[in-house]
């Protein structure tokens, strides 16, 4: 655990030295809420307002995980420090655990501005129990994006990882109903939406906070995505380790 704490501290310090990256990931979801949700009058429908806030909270976590792990890991692999760490006589798990904890920390920080804007400028409401359940659901909902980011980061150079992450995150966010409620989708898009990891993540968090029953197929699909991306992430790490250090 001492090694985990050391890696975590180092990675956090490294991240906060680039404040513009932190501000962009934290403010973009909040600005989306401010511009695309707040102008509509949800004063007579707190559930709809809460659902919109929950969707953008999932969007914030998804964006943070994909870019922190996808682009961040790929960038670290091309620097001299990370390869040096991987040659030391220490297990890999403290380094990976420290990175995951760092990513979770900044994902949580990206949620705070969205929550504040939702609390101040919309009629969204949630009890302490609902907030706790929402946080637990958010941890589970973030797994496909955490593993997906690691899979991208360990399998691609940074020049490829950056455009791939950009190409992946927006269609998944839109198709999963994180920017527009999926009830507004046409029938064909509804079918596609339920197969995306973002839809299951969105439905799970909304269910925890608002009580709206999720699509069972979407939640199952999210679980399948989590297992599949975890398997790809493990394969990509082992391949990278084998190519560069054996």
TrEMBL record:
Membrane topology note: Multi-pass membrane protein
UniProt keyword list: Antibiotic resistance, Membrane, Transmembrane, Transmembrane helix
Primary location class: membrane
Lineage: superkingdom: Bacteria
Localization terms from the record: Membrane
One Pfam family per UniProt: ABC2_membrane
Segments forming domain ABC-2 type transporter transmembrane: 13-201
Residue ranges of the TM segments: 20-40, 52-75, 96-119, 131-152, 164-184, 204-237
Protein name per UniProt: ABC-2 type transporter transmembrane domain-containing protein
Species for this entry: Pseudonocardia ailaonensis
């Amino acid at each position: 655990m001492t090694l985990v704490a050391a890696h975590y501290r180092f990675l956090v310090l490294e991240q906060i030295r680039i404040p513009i990256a932190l501000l962009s990931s934290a403010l973009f979801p909040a600005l989306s809420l401010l511009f695309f949700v707040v102008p509509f009058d949800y004063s007579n429908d707190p559930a709809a307002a809460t659902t919109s806030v929950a969707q953008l909270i999932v969007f914030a976590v998804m964006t943070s995980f994909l870019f922190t792990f996808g682009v961040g890991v790929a960038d670290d692999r091309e620097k001299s420090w990370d390869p040096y760490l991987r040659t030391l006589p220490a297990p890999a798990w403290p380094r990976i655990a420290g990175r995951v904890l760092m990513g979770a920390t900044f994902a949580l920080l990206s949620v705070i501005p969205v929550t504040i804007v939702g609390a101040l400028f919309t009629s969204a409401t949630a009890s302490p129990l609902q907030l706790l359940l929402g946080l637990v659901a958010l941890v589970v909902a973030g797994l496909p994006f955490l593993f997906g980011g690691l899979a991208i980061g360990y399998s691609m150079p940074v020049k490829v990882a950056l455009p791939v992450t950009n190409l992946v995150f927006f269609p998944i966010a839109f198709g999963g109903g994180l920017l527009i409620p999926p009830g507004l989708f046409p029938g064909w898009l509804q079918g596609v939406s339920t197969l995306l990891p973002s839809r299951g993540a969105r439905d799970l968090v909304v269910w925890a906070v608002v009580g709206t029953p999720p699509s069972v197929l979407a939640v199952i699909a999210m679980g399948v995505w989590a297992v599949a991306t975890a398997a790809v992430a493990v394969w990509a790490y082992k391949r990278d380790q084998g190519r560069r250090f054996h």
